[in-house]
Amino acid sequence: METSTVTVRPIVQHFSDILCVWAYVANARLEHVAERFADRVDFELRFCSVFPDARGKLGASWKDRGGTAGYAEHVRSVARRFDHVEVHPDAWAVVQPRSSIALHQFVKAVELEDPASSGAGVPLGQRLGHRAAWALREAFFRDGRDIGEWAVQAEVAAGFGLDPARIESHLRSGAAAAALESD
């Protein structure tokens, strides 16, 4: 009788918000760790909304520190400490997405379109959802685009060869919202 052993790899649950500058900066480190320990550890990428009402949050929490302009300068000062990221002058100063929830739902919709590319055992850098989240972060932080707008999200989807109408169907059906709620 043959016996087989099943190797269970530990899972690191990584929570982030697409609009968080620290998540933007930390992405390179996350990918480095995932690549270095790919044979020993797996990652579950999850979202928590730090900016569910971005404009309201910044208006209230930064009102005595320069408001949204003060926060935009804070974000630029964080990014200046790291050579691998850029922040567009309009990010937060002019371009202010309303909420990160729609962004997180978009990534979940992308994952629903190709579930096999987002699960355990798939290298982090090859996961469609992870790549879509990074594309959104770059579009906002580096390029100064309003990623809260569906038109920008649709461009991101098309950039991955996905049909934006199919992504939108996951959003409209509530399937993406349900997947996000599981986080």
Please outline what is shown here.
By secondary structure, this protein is mainly alpha-helical. Helices cover 51% and strands 7% of the residues.
Note down, in words, how this protein is organized:
- This protein has eight helices and two strands, in the order βαβααααααα.
- It has helices spanning 21-36, 54-61, 67-80, 101-113, 128-142, 150-159, 164-173, 175-181, and strands at 11-16, 42-47.
- Helix 4 crosses helix 8 and helix 5 crosses helix 6.
Poorly predicted tracts of residues: none
Structural class of the secondary structure composition?
mainly alpha
Number of helices: 8
Strand content: 5-15%
Sketch the topology as an H/E string, one letter per element.
Answer: EHEHHHHHHH
User: How many beta-strand elements?
Assistant: 2
Widest sheet, order of strands: 1-2
Major sheet, described briefly?
A: 2 strands, parallel
Structural features:
single chain, 183 residues, mainly alpha, two-stranded parallel ribbon, 8 helices, 51% helix, globular
Write the layout of secondary structure elements.
Elements: E1 11-16, H1 21-36, E2 42-47, H2 54-61, H3 67-80, H4 101-113, H5 128-142, H6 150-159, H7 164-173, H8 175-181
Parallel strand pairs: 1-2
